[in-house]
Design brief:
mainly beta; Methylamine Dehydrogenase, Chain H; about 5% helix; single chain; 1 helix; five-stranded antiparallel β-sheet
Length: about 425
């Protein structure tokens, strides 16, 4: 096992950027950009140390995290007992790796997606690699019981020519191709591979009914795709219900303003797409036909629309829909208090959005044991953020200088701080050197 080269006195240096007593605290609305702020001040002492490794992308999953450096190398950390780290070391059952470890087998990594017990990476030459505990066959006569195998380092394949985006669920993988198709493979239990295919799919197969997809987002038991000019189609199971059985908002002519999303399709055009989805076991998120980016959490989803507004739907008991109410919604509702978002994210019971100013605003149950936050509040200590990723209890963000920060649940060491704990505030994960080769 090759850990990240660091000073002998530490496996990984964690540099806190806000006081340790804060638990995912959210600051009030941001003042003007030129105004001085205590939490925006340059840190002193160890916090001012500069990483020699620039992080390009980060992916947070169920209990782990992976990051891609500017040199296209990959490091992973967190839950490790199912092979999630990918470093070739067989960890004990329920084992953890709280400090980042290089995935030495991979070079030229372009994308990575982290699921519950599995991960998938896409390299710059278009090859796919998967690792973790994969379902490889369904045992005959044993309903819902499958044969699995654990792969402790990345395995090449399957082949998906023209893959543009990859995504991972609990034990399922998806790829969006340049032709606009979504291919899925892995454990198809609970109809997570679309339609009524409750099976194990060894080779990638197209999700019927989707022809012009731009993005796919997956949770444990369901998946949504951004299709056409911005229509959202979902499939799988939420709670104890197949998604198609959940209530939806029906729009009539002129009703688009009821959810605040301007329909770029004609009403008839949107309806035809939505009706077409139903033939293939897909269910539309009715009321949004111009989404530009989506994300899904345990039982809810959020979408970004032109202009920077955010809409969420699904479970809302912990106020993760951002409309100030602790109620579920079958259709999208507008998130109050943010209108300049450039990215949205959904976790277990929380949602977040990245604003044009480089700040992250979150709502819902932001942190374990905290009171639900009904509307977006800024996460203190983070500024100049370029992108972020949400797991099921933690999140990580990369700033415009390539520095990496993680916060939230740290039970499996998923924050990369070198130790496990209940939870931590936004803390810098410092990498000092890329591995040789």
């Amino acid at each position: 096992m090759s850990r990240l080269p660091l000073p002998a006195v530490a496996v990984m240096r964690a540099v806190a950027v806000i006081p340790a007593v804060a638990v995912m605290s959210c600051a009030p609305s941001a003042p003007p950009e030129h105004a001085a702020r205590a939490d925006d001040a340059a840190p002193e002492g160890p916090a001012a140390a500069k990483s020699t490794v620039r992080i390009e992308k980060v992916a947070a999953g169920g209990g782990g995290t992976c990051a891609i450096t500017s040199k296209k190398r990959l490091a992973c950390w967190g839950a490790a007992g199912d092979g999630q780290i990918g470093n070739g070391v067989p960890y004990a059952h329920l084992g953890i790796e709280p400090a980042p470890v290089w995935v030495e087998k991979l070079r030229s990594v372009e994308q990575v997606a982290v699921g519950g017990a599995t991960s998938v990476a896409l390299t710059t030459d278009g090859k796919l690699f998967t690792w973790g505990t994969l379902v490889v066959a369904r045992r005959e006569g044993m309903t819902g019981n499958h044969k699995s195998a654990t792969f402790w380092e990345p395995q090449e394949g399957p082949s998906v020519p023209g893959a543009l985006q990859i995504e991972g669920g609990a034990a399922t993988f998806f790829a969006v191709t340049k032709e606009g198709k979504v291919l899925g493979w892995g454990n198809g239990s609970n109809y997570v591979l679309g339609g009524l295919r409750n099976l194990v799919q060894k080779e990638p197969a197209a999700i019927d009914g989707l022809t012009s997809v731009r993005q796919v987002a997956s949770a444990t038991l369901y998946t949504c795709a951004l299709d056409g000019p911005g229509v959202i189609a979902c499939w799988g199971i939420v709670g104890n219900s197949v998604i198609g059985d959940l209530p939806t908002i029906e729009l009539g002519p002129g009703d688009a303003k009821s959810v605040g999303a301007k329909l770029e399709l004609s009403d008839d055009g949107a309806r035809k797409m939505w009706e077409g989805f139903s033939k293939y076991g897909l269910t539309p998120v009715r009321g949004i036909a111009n989404a530009t980016q989506i994300d899904v959490g345990s039982n809810h989803g959020c979408a970004l629309v032109p202009g920077g507004s955010v809409y969420c739907w699904g479970e809302g008991k912990r106020m993760q829909l951002g409309n100030g109410k602790a109620v579920d919604k079958g259709g999208p509702v507008r998130v109050h208090g943010i209108d300049d978002a450039i990215q949205v994210g959904a976790g277990h019971s929380e949602s977040c959005a990245l604003s044009k100013t480089g700040h992250i605003h979150c709502w819902g149950q932001v942190g374990l044991g905290t009171e639900p936050t009904p509307r977006p509040k800024k996460i203190a200590g983070l500024k100049n953020i370029a992108s972020f990723s949400m797991g099921l209890g933690h999140a990580c963000a990369v700033d415009r200088d390539g520095a990496l920060y993680c916060w939230g649940s740290n039970r499996f060491g998923e924050l990369g701080l070198g130790f496990a704990s209940l939870q931590e505030p936004p803390t810098r994960v410092e990498l000092t050197e890329d591995p040789p080769g």
